[in-house]
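pinging the channel bc i need a second pair of eyes. not urgent but kinda urgent?? the chain im working w is below, pasted from the shared doc
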Amino acid sequence: MQELWAKKTKWQRKEDIIAKEYYANRAGILAEFGKIVCISVGFINYKYEMKNFLLSSFYNHDEALLLG
C-alpha cells in the first residue's frame, strides 16, 4: 500500500518530500480518507414578494445513512 500511495502522490509532492511525510501532513484533506459527517440543503422561497431562506441539515448519523 505504501508503494501505491507513493505512486499516487508523486505528482503532488516536491522531490525532497517523501511519501510518509506527505501522508502525515495532507491525508486528512484527501477524499480517500474523508468522511461525510453533515449534509445541508438550502432553498429560497419567494412568498408575498419576500425572500425566505430555508435550511435543513442532516447530521449525527452514520455516513451510509446520510447518503442513503
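so The chain has two domains: 1-34, 35-68. and Residues 35-68 form one domain. — does that match what u expected or am i reading it wrong
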